[in-house]
Specification:
This protein is an alpha/beta fold. Helices cover 35% and strands 20% of the residues.
């Protein structure tokens, strides 16, 4: 459940070709697809920003909160947690996959 799963995905190839090193992530299954892609992105060397107010889940209570807590509190400089309203001035950076 990841947009970057496998030896080389089309998304990973595009990001490399364009020199993109920071990914802003959001989605509807925070504790599944979003988390899977976030972790795979980390292992491929990308800096990852989870957009908290543009992310949700259909999983039982706690799934969303756990993902947000882990991303916001892990002692790793390559993970960040932000609110989407802070990104509105940089809408041209958004890439929808």
């Amino acid at each position: 459940m990841s947009g970057l799963w496998g030896p080389q995905s089309s998304l990973d190839l595009y990001l490399q070709e364009e020199g993109i090193t920071t990914l802003f992530m959001s989605g509807v299954n925070a504790d599944q697809c979003v988390l899977g892609t976030l972790i795979d992105s980390y292992y491929r060397g990308y800096d990852v920003v989870l957009v908290q107010d543009a992310t949700a889940t259909t999983s039982p209570e706690g799934g969303y909160a756990n993902v947000c807590w882990n991303v916001g509190n892990v002692s790793c400089r390559r993970f960040s947690l932000v609110e989407g309203r802070l990104l509105n001035e940089h809408a041209e950076l958004w890439f929808y996959y």
